[in-house]
């Protein structure tokens, strides 16, 4: 099947008119927490989007007008509206979707192999699906975060080999998603500039014209696809290094017997200083992975990036040690203590546990001999199947009588807890995110409520 519109190399005015009149067919590969909001937003603008996903239950939900992605403002309504008016539909048949589309947007996860090597197997599999339906004049936009050089060295050659088309017959560009869970539609529609970079100048221009037509974002074209890939990875590496610095300053503050968070907050009043906050570790699909994408792409030593990753990986263990020290200061032993962890997701309000620091923290406390319980209103007990911790419904935690309470992820639901029910339990708010009782310790605060040292 030949699609109705050739995007690659067309004119600006033609593209705008064709999008406005529903003549641009789009396929979005991957309907996860970033892919579904993107597919719905593009459907709203183009009127013709088919979403592709390997999960049949996801496809069935979308085709029923339902969003399987929770806690995304406006998404459920937008999915319902765009499915109802026929502008969005879903399928598990990627090759058929590719044959229909002239624009192919890939937003699937890039994971890590053992040894922290990037795993591009999903990207390659989807690229083969696209190639099976690729026509001359099509445009392929990769939004998945990948090691710099992936479009040039992996995606474009694979598309050419599998489709039989010459590389100059179609366009490939990297156009990274720059969205956060809980605000995906706002981010997609115009919160941040959209970065685009093609494997050749014509592909860059094609991507620029497309995203200018379908979003309200400023679109920033860069020199090439590898540069655009580096932009996304650099963003994540910056945050990882900055968080590692904050964590190290917090640990130093414990030794200095000062409130490191106060020092950081006041230091940040200087416009050239932007230190992040200390915490019990770094989780999610992004920050813990991106440094490996960069380190794997070069044979140059990267000691700062590697050290930052090591510091952040060590924070759950450090936090467990701090809990032990706080218990000892209160005249208790960690190997005879019950410790309640509040929050297992990696971010407040987001039902995601990828790389969460809560689970290694629970394992380390268990190794120290503590009995560990976890409560999180956003996760199911199955999340803890391979953890030594016991899952508790939130409504039961006030009757636990723990020796220590650690706020790992400050969900707003925890604000309503009756902290007095925990009696004289040691409280560590690891992110300083709740209105906790007086005397609560935070990471980086070397002072106890009695003015002594921890």
The shape, in one word, is elongated
> What is the CATH superfamily of the largest domain?
NAD(P)-binding Rossmann-like Domain
State the strand order across the main sheet.
3-2-1-4-7-8-9-10
Q: Ranges with pLDDT <50 over ≥5 residues?
A: 448-454
Work out the radius of gyration.
Answer: 24 Å
What is the third-level CATH name, the topology of the largest domain?
Rossmann fold
Q: How many discrete structural domains?
A: 2
| Secondary-structure-derived class | alpha/beta
Tell me the total number of β-strands: 16
Q: Please state the average pLDDT score.
A: 92
What is the helix/strand order?
HEHEHHEHEEEHEHEHEHEHHHHEHEEEEE
Which CATH architecture of the largest domain is right? 3-Layer(aba) Sandwich
Give the helix proportion (percent range).
25-40%
Structure report:
Helices cover 39% and strands 13% of the residues. Helix 14 (358-367) links the parallel strand 11 and strand 12 (371-375). Mean pLDDT is 92; it is low at 448-454. The chain is built from 14 helices and 16 strands. By secondary structure, it is α/β, with parallel strands linked by helices. The longest helix has 32 residues, at 225-256. The protein has two domains: 12-223, Rossmann fold; 242-442, Rossmann fold (3-Layer(aba) Sandwich). The chain starts with 11 loop residues before the first helix and ends in a 12-residue tail after the last strand. The strands form three sheets. Strands 3-2-1-4-7-8-9-10 form an eight-stranded mixed beta sheet, with helices on both faces. Strands 13-12-11-14-15-16 form a six-stranded parallel beta sheet, with helices on one face. Strands 5-6 form a two-stranded antiparallel sheet.
